[in-house]
C-alpha cells in the first residue's frame, strides 16, 4: 500500500480524468461524477487510505462515491496510479493537456481546436490565432482569439519555476491583500517559499478562519489574478497573470501547526518524519498528531508546529533545513546548527561604483553601507579586461586606492573602506593585473567573466591558478550561473574547494538573487571542510546592498552558521584570516 496517496492526490487524479473525458466528449454525467467526487475527497476530514484499511467500513458510505469510484480509490491507494488515467493519456497527445492550462479555454473548446484544426501544442495554437483561423470555428469569436493569445503566454509561464525573489514580491503583495480580511485569524506562507529554495514552483498559503467562504472570496479577488483553478470547502487554487499559481488552505485552529508543518515540506522531510512517528506509535498528517488508543484515534497535538515536532522529541527545525539531508541526524546529536542571520553580517566585500559599472559613487556607496549598519565595505570595481564596464587599469585603480586612503582618514575608526578589486581571470589563465599592483590592495577577489564556454579542464585550471596567487583572497561567484537564464560554467567544484582549503582562500556566496552561487550544497561542503564563506552583494547601486538577505537565506539552506561566514566578523579579523592565505 502506498502511503503517499493523499486525498488531494486522489482528487487531483480524478480531476485529470474528468478533464480528459470532457476533452473526449464523454457523457457529461460521468464527468460530473468525477468532479464531484474529487471535491468530496479533497475535503474529507479523514484519509481515504484510513477508511480502506478499516474492515468494518466502506468507501461507498461517503456521499457521492459509488461502487466504481470506490474501486478506483482502492486502486490508487494500492498501486499509486490509475490505469484508466494512463489509458486516457495514451489516447490523447500529452501536449493537448497544455491547452487546458489556458485560462478560460476549457476542455470543450480545446476539443474543437484539436478536432477541427489538429492543434496539439500551444505553439500551433498561437499560429492559428495569429492567422485568424480560430475565429472561424463555431463558438469562437475574434475576441476569444485575443484572450487565447494572452492565455498562451500565461500557460507558457506556468511551466516555469520562478526565482525566490520574485515569489517573495508576489507573496508579500498577496499577504497584504489577505490581511485586510477580518475573518483571517492566522496566516502563514508555507511550501518551498518558506524553505527558501532558489526557485519556487507555486505558493502555498495557510489560513486559520472559521469563515472560509469570506477568506476565499477575498482570495479570489487577489491582485493580478488570472483564473480560479479550483475552489472547494477548505482548499482553493488560483493562477496569477504571471503564471504563478497559489494554493490556499483554510484550517481549524487546532490543525494550524500540523498543516504548517505538512505544507512547508519538503516532501522527503515529511516522509521521513512520518516514518519516525510510526515507529513511536503515532500518526502525523496535516490535521495533527494522533495516537491510537483502544482502537480510537486520539488527537495529541497540532495547534503549533513546535508541538508537532516535540511529540517526536524533535526540535523545531528551521524551514531552510527541512530537506531530509542531515537535519534528523543533527537532531539526534542535539547539534542542529544555529543558522546565520542577516543581523550577523558586519561588512560587504564586493561592490561596484561609478568608476566602473556601478550607479553610485564611492562616497555614496560608503554612506549607504553605513546607514545599513555595516562597519566595513570593500570597493571591488572591475579590472581592465571588462571593457564594457570601463574596467580599471593599474593607474586608475591605484588612484582609487589613494582616494580610499584619504576617505578612511576622514571617516575615523568606526568604518573601514577596504581597498579591493574584482580582478578578472583572463581566458588564457593569468590574472588581469600584475602582482605588484595587486599587492598594494587589501582584498582582491578573482572572477571569470569571459571564456565561460571553455572546457571543464580549462575553466577549473583558471580558477585553480587564481587560488594559487598569494594576493587573491577569494573567488567571486564561483560558478557563474544565472538562475533560469544561464547554466553554471563547467567547473570542477571539488577541486576548487580543495584548492581553496589548501591555500587558505575564501569562497564567495554571491547574494544577487539571480546568482546565489555558491549553491546550498556547495555551502554545506565548504562548511564541512572548514573553508570560510563570504556573503557579498556585488551591489551596483545603493539599493543593491539590500540583496544581502537573499545570500543569507541561501547560506542558511546550506546550514551555515555565524562562525562559518567570514564577514560576520570585524574587518581586522577578516584581515587576519586572509593574511594566512597570503603568506
Ligand atoms: P514547489 O511548489 O514545487 O516549489 O515545492 P513545494 O515544496 O512548495 O511543493 P508543493 O507546493 O507541491 O507542496 C507543498 C508542500 O506540501 C510540500 O513541500 C510537502 C507537502 N506535500 C504536498 N504533497 C505531498 C505528498 O504527496 N506527500 C507529502 N508527504 N507531502 C506533500
Ligand atoms: Ca509550493
Ligand atoms: Ca502547492
Ligand atoms: Zn562584481
CATH topology of the largest domain: TIM Barrel
Briefly note the structural class of the backbone.
alpha/beta
Total of helices: 24
In the CATH scheme, the class of the largest domain would be Alpha Beta
Proportion of helical residues: 40-55%
The proportion of residues in beta strands is 5-15%
Q: How many strand units?
A: 17
Mean pLDDT: 93
Any idea how many domains? 5
Low-confidence stretches: none
Distance between the termini: 62 Å
The backbone outline, from C-alpha atoms, is globular
Please identify, by name, the CATH architecture of the largest domain: Alpha-Beta Barrel
Name the CATH superfamily classification of the largest domain. Metal-dependent hydrolases
The neighbouring-strand order within the major sheet is 11-12-13-14-15-16-17
Small-molecule components bound: 2'-deoxyguanosine-5'-triphosphate, calcium ion, zinc ion
Give the radius of gyration: 28 Å
Largest sheet: 7 strands, parallel
Tags for this entry?
DNA polymerase, domain 1, alpha/beta, 24 helices, five-stranded mixed β-sheet, binds calcium ion, globular, 583 residues, Beta Polymerase, domain 2, binds zinc ion
What's a quick, concise take on this entry?
With 583 residues, this protein is α/β, with parallel strands linked by helices. It folds into 5 domains: 1-92, DNA polymerase, domain 1 (Orthogonal Bundle); 95-149, DNA polymerase, domain 1, CATH 1.10.150; 162-250, Beta Polymerase, domain 2; 256-332, 2-Layer Sandwich (Beta Polymerase, domain 3); 342-582, Alpha-Beta Barrel (TIM Barrel), CATH 3.20.20.140.
Amino acid at each position: 500500500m502506498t502511503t503517499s496517496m493523499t486525498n488531494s492526490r486522489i482528487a487531483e487524479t480524478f480531476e485529470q480524468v474528468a478533464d480528459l473525458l470532457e476533452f473526449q466528449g464523454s457523457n457529461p454525467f460521468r464527468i460530473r461524477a468525477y468532479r464531484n467526487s474529487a471535491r468530496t475527497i479533497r475535503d474529507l476530514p479523514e484519509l481515504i487510505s484510513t477508511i480502506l484499511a478499516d474492515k468494518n467500513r466502506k468507501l461507498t458510505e461517503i456521499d457521492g462515491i459509488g461502487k466504481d469510484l470506490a474501486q478506483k480509490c482502492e486502486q490508487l491507494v494500492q498501486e499509486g496510479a490509475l490505469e484508466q488515467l494512463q489509458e486516457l493519456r495514451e489516447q490523447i497527445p500529452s501536449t493537448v493537456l497544455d491547452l487546458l492550462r489556458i485560462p478560460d479555454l476549457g476542455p470543450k473548446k480545446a476539443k474543437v481546436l484539436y478536432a477541427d484544426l489538429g492543434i496539439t501544442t500551444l505553439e500551433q495554437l498561437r499560429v492559428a490565432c495569429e492567422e485568424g483561423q480560430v475565429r472561424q470555428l463555431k463558438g469562437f469569436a475574434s475576441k476569444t482569439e485575443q484572450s487565447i493569445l494572452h492565455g498562451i503566454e500565461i500557460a507558457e509561464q506556468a511551466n516555469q519555476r520562478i526565482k525566490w525573489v520574485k515569489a517573495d514580491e508576489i507573496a508579500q503583495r498577496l499577504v497584504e491583500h489577505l490581511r485586510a480580511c477580518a475573518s483571517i485569524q492566522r496566516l502563514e506562507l508555507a511550501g518551498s517559499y518558506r524553505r527558501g529554495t532558489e526557485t519556487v514552483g507555486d505558493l502555498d498559503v495557510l489560513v486559520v478562519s472559521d469563515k472560509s467562504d469570506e477568506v476565499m472570496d477575498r482570495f479570489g479577488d487577489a491582485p493580478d489574478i488570472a483564473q480560479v483553478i479550483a475552489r472547494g470547502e477548505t482548499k482553493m487554487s488560483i493562477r496569477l497573470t504571471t503564471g504563478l499559481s497559489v494554493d490556499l488552505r483554510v484550517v481549524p485552529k487546532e490543525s494550524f501547526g500540523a498543516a504548517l508543518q505538512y505544507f512547508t515540506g519538503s516532501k522527503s522531510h515529511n516522509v521521513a518524519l512520518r516514518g519516525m512517528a510510526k515507529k513511536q506509535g503515532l500518526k502525523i498528517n496535516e490535521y495533527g498528531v494522533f495516537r491510537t488508543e483502544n482502537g480510537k484515534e486520539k488527537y495529541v497535538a497540532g495547534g503549533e508546529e513546535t508541538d508537532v515536532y516535540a511529540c517526536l522529541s524533535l526540535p523545531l527545525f528551521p524551514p531552510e533545513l527541512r530537506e531530509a539531508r542531515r537535519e534528523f541526524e543533527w537532531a539526534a546529536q542535539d547539534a542542529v546548527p544555529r543558522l546565520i542571520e542577516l543581523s550577523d553580517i558586519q561588512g560587504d566585500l564586493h561592490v561596484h561604483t561609478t568608476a566602473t559599472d556601478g550607479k553610485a559613487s564611492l562616497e555614496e556607496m560608503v554612506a549607504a553601507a553605513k546607514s545599513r549598519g555595516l562597519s566595513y565595505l570593500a570597493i571591488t570595481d572591475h579590472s581592465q579586461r571588462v571593457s564594457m564596464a570601463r574596467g580599471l587599469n593599474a593607474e586608475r585603480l591605484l588612484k582609487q586606492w589613494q582616494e580610499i586612503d584619504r576617505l578612511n582618514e576622514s571617516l575615523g575608526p568606526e568604518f573601514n573602506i577596504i581597498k579591493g578589486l574584482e580582478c578578472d581571470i583572463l581566458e588564457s589563465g593569468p590574472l588581469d593585473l600584475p602582482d605588484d599592483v595587486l599587492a598594494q590592495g587589501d582584498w582582491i577577489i578573482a572572477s571569470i567573466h569571459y571564456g565561460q564556454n571553455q572546457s571543464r579542464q580549462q575553466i577549473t585550471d583558471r580558477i585553480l591558478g587564481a587560488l594559487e596567487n598569494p594576493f587573491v583572497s577569494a573567488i567571486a561567484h564561483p560558478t557563474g550561473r544565472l538562475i533560469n537564464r544561464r547554466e553554471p560554467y563547467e567547473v570542477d567544484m571539488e577541486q576548487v574547494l580543495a584548492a581553496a582549503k589548501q591555500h587558505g582562500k575564501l569562497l564567495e556566496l554571491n547574494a544577487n538573487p539571480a546568482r546565489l552561487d555558491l549553491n546550498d550544497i556547495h555551502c554545506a561542503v565548504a562548511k564541512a571542510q572548514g573553508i570560510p564563506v563570504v556573503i557579498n552583494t556585488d551591489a551596483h547601486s545603493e539599493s543593491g546592498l539590500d540583496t544581502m538577505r537573499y545570500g543569507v537565506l541561501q547560506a542558511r539552506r546550506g546550514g551555515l552558521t555565524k562562525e562559518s561566514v567570514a564577514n560576520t566578523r570585524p574587518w581586522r579579523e577578516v584581515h587576519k584570516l586572509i593574511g594566512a592565505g597570503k603568506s
